Amino acid sequence: MTASQSRPYRMSFSVGGLMLNESLIIAGTYQPGEQWADVRERLLGQGVSTLPKLASQTRALREVFDRIGHLSDDERHYLLTEADRAEQQAMIWLSVCRSYRFVHEFAVEVLNERFLSWRLDMGQEVFDLFLAEKAEQDLSLAQLSSSTCAKLRQVLFRILREAGLLSVEGRIQPVWLSGRMKRLIEESNPADLRVFPGNGG
Prior knowledge:
Layout: H1 3-6, H2 20-29, H3 36-45, H4 54-68, H5 73-81, H6 85-99, H7 101-116, H8 124-135, H9 139-142, H10 146-162, H11 179-188
């Protein structure tokens, strides 16, 4: 079992979608090693998130902060100064995959594998089957309620669409990465290219 496989599943990606705009603002103010408590009030005061409830807003921003922390300094710099909108989406998708083991495994074991075998249509049952298979190995997933599972599916599919990985019709789409972005990812972890359909084999 690898270190990543031994990590517990965090399912808190359910707080929202890709949250690209919020991610860009937080990435612009992120300081390596900075604690969430030190920036929470400042970010909330800036009205970073459009979530209406303060409690939900705080939770969402904490998740975004954690995601940005999974990008290297060079990746954050590229995100803010060089990446176009599509690559910004891809970089935040990468941060989501690094933050949540479940999403990373879904990207590699479902998205990439289906793309490589040219099974591009992806309905809700694909997620349900994947979750059921993971629940056989992890008690925490097996204990999730049906309503929670439905929410997780809804949010993950929303993230996929917002990241450009899934079309409105529900078809998996390849992601084009520039040579510069590929090199940045390879410097951190070459295996991460596999979270992008059509990259990394």
